[in-house]
Amino acid sequence: MSALSAWIDDHLGELVYGGIDGSVTTFAVVAGATGAGLASEVVIILGFANLFADGFSMSVGAYLSSKSGKQMYERERKKEYQEIEDVPEDEVEEVREIFTELGFEGELLEQVVDKITENEDRWVDVMMKYELDLIPEKKSAAMVGVSTFISFLIFGLLPLLSYLIDVWYPLDLDMFVVSSLLTAVAFAYIGWFKSYITKTGHLQSILETLGLGASAALLAYFAGDVLESFLL
Questions:
Q1: CA-CA distance, 225 to 4, in Å (whole number)?
Q2: What count of other Cβ atoms lies within 10 Å of the Cβ of residue 102?
Q3: What pLDDT, on the 0 to 100 scale, is given for residue 229?
């Protein structure tokens, strides 16, 4: 497996949600500006301002969320160690209750309880997973933020491509239609990847993502059109 493939596998969640937010918010800006009848140059300025500002904001949020999750996990883990030291009998009984609910009983149950509680690290691992329903986050918080930002930029750039081309090499095409088609392709790819996270069908996930993007675009377009009629 290449380094790129490994990175995609490890950060698929960040890539999907960063991509969704990047394409949806940037296309909403494009749709709103087009609805207001603004020139391609203005669309590009507004789009890139959103692309970097919102992308950075989202990546910082992802980083802080991941970091906070790690800190909470470590705090709860230290608390479990302290409880084992302070009230070991109660903690042993909690292990017994956990494995009773899992179907263990009799001598086998006691053997399992004895085995788990003979090692503090193993004991705490069991309590973290089965009592608190917490698992350690292995991904770097910094890489979570970076992955989100990169995905936001890549997918958020697609709605702007047609306008960039129009400025440098004017074409006799409706740039908003071209932008819509490029964004629809981006939504389809994101929806396909999202299906691997949500464990839903590919078509269902693609249609959901397309519906989300279309709704945001229509809302932004008509908001821009209404504001343009009042203000310009």
A1: 42
A2: 10
A3: 64
Can you give the pLDDT at residue 22?
85
Is pLDDT larger for residue 90 or for residue 20?
Answer: 90
Question: What's the N-to-C CA distance of the chain in angstroms?
Answer: 55
- In the predicted model, is pLDDT for residue 226 greater than 90? no
**DSSP SS3 for 135:** coil
Phi, psi of 115 (to 5 degrees): -65, -45
**AA identity, residue 96:** R
Number of other CB atoms surrounding residue 27 within 10 Å: 31
DSSP 8-class letter at 172 = S
- Measured distance CA(219)–CA(232) in Å, rounded: 19
**C-alpha pair distances (Å), 6 with each of 12, 81, 140, 199:** 10, 34, 14, 20
Task: Please report the sign of the dihedral spanned by the C-alpha atoms of residue 56, residue 57, residue 58, residue 61.
Answer: positive
User: Cβ contacts of residue 87 below 8 Å, gap of 6+?
Assistant: none
